[in-house]
Amino acid sequence: DAMVIQNPRYQVTQFGKPVTLSCSQTLNHNVMYWYQQKSSQAPKLLFHYYDKDFNNEADTPDNFQSRRPNTSFCFLDIRSPGLGDAAMYLCATSIRDRGRDTQYFGPGTRLTVL
Amino acid sequence: TQLLEQSPQFLSIQEGENLTVYCNSSSVFSSLQWYRQEPGEGPVLLVTVVTGGEVKKLKRLTFQFGDARKDSSLHITAAQPGDTGLYLCAGGLNLIDGGSQGNLIFGKGTKLSVKP
To answer: What parts of chain B have a pLDDT lower than 50?
Structure first.
């Protein structure tokens, strides 16, 4: 089945220790998104790739970076995680369609910062 | 600033009751998506509506998109404990409306608890 896969599902890191979360998709969608979600809140968009074009949200901290080496994979790098970065990180994909994009989410990675 | 007001924020009901969740905005959306999310999991798409006045049904769930494409509702008939979760509405904007093409505007979510 076509899907969005996130690894790992659970990640524990130490304060200040860089961490990378990964997302892969078999949907062949041209857009990939990274969201941060804190407890019982709506997902907050960090950035997205439209093909190879990177689009950063204005309020996304510099601590968060992303890479998309090919259509199928996208990575979220947190350079120096702080306690406030503990959250669920969601990857989503879509096909760009004049604002009618339907986004499909992965299962998420729960990040714990010690 | 585009906002999508979702209400109620919390809802606790008994099995068998009906409920409605609302999403309202002053912005016109090209599409409106509803998701359901369980704890520790990603949001799962329930439906996408794109036409003003559109009504879609998914078993006991009925979704409606307002005629002006500014609002939407989700109605659940005879709720069951398995319906428990966080329901999110999200509106899509195109460049004509001033939004970032393809990005979604999320409501704050409705946390539904259905007790047996």
So the answer is: none
